[in-house]
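Input record (one chain):
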Amino acid sequence: MKKRFLLTSFDIWLSEQLSNSSNDLLLEVAKLDSLSHDLTFLYQLPVDVQLASECVIAKINELKPDYIICCGMAAKRTQLSVEVRASCQESVLYTGVDLGQLVLGAETIEISHDCGKFVCEGLYYSVLDYLHQSQLTMNCIFVHVPVLHPENLVRILEDFLLIINKLALL
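The corresponding structure, as predicted from the sequence alone:
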C-alpha cells in the first residue's frame, strides 16, 4: 500500500529573492516518476504563521496523510537539516520520528535543534500541536533546505528522497 505524504514549501519573503529553495526542491521532486508513494504538494505557503498553519491543517484534515514533511529555506546552511523540535514561548514540542534512525547512513543530512524564530518554527509548532491536540497518529518533520545550485542539487534531491523513503518504512 502506498504511503501518503503531504509536502509543504514556502513562498519568498524578501523582494530580492528569486525563489525559495524549499519550493524549488519540491518542484524537483514532483518531476520524478519513479517514486512509489502518494505525494501531495502544498507549494508556496504564505510567509505568515497563521495563514500557513491554516492551509496545512486544512490539507491534513482533507488528505489524512501518513506523513507530513514541512520544508523551509535556510540560506546559511549547506545541507538538509531535519528539525528535532519547535517552540512557542515556553512550550516545546518534538517530532515523534526517530531522527537518528531517519538519517542513519546519510552523510549530508544533519539533525538540527534550531528551527529558527521565523515562520518555519511557527508552522512546525502549529502542526505538531494540532496533531497532538487532535490525537492524530501521523508523523511530521520539518526540513530546512539550503540554497540550491547546480553543484548541490543532485545531492540535496537524493538526500530528500532518502528521507521520504525512510519515513515510508517507519
